[in-house]
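Appendix B: a complete holo record

For completeness, this appendix reproduces one full record from the ligand-bound portion of the collection. The bound molecule is zinc ion. The inputs are the chain sequence and the ligand SMILES; the output is the full three-dimensional arrangement of the complex, encoded as structure tokens. No fields have been trimmed.
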Amino acid sequence: MTTTQEGGCQCGAVRFAVSGAPKFVANCHCQSCRKATGAACSTWVGFLAENTQWTRGAPAFFASSPGVKRGYCRDCGTPLSFAGEQWAGELHFLAGVFDNPEAFPPRTEAFTEDALSWAPRLHKDTE
Ligand SMILES: [Zn+2]
Ligand SMILES: [Zn+2]
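The structure of the chain with zinc ion bound, as generated:
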């Protein structure tokens, strides 16, 4: 069975769809994500790029560091996606921009060494 999930930006100009199970769902505590989203940490859902597609409009991209492309809506500014050379062949989406974010509870955390003292953290027994 192939499940499809859709999502998009706040204004609706950019929409996407993904199929299949995510490779991971992780809370990232790195400073780059913090700046990109404005949130203490951000939940990312990783897919094989071949299982994703932009279904309406197209994102603009910002290279937050060399080899990284962060996709966002040029109209409303919603951060949407992340692609990096370190994760070649993958496309990551922020959990919060899916139509049904409940489908993607985070399982792991990344860059916890950069975590803010007040950032929400997963229970130790899930790490
Ligand atoms: Zn938008
Ligand atoms: Zn990050």
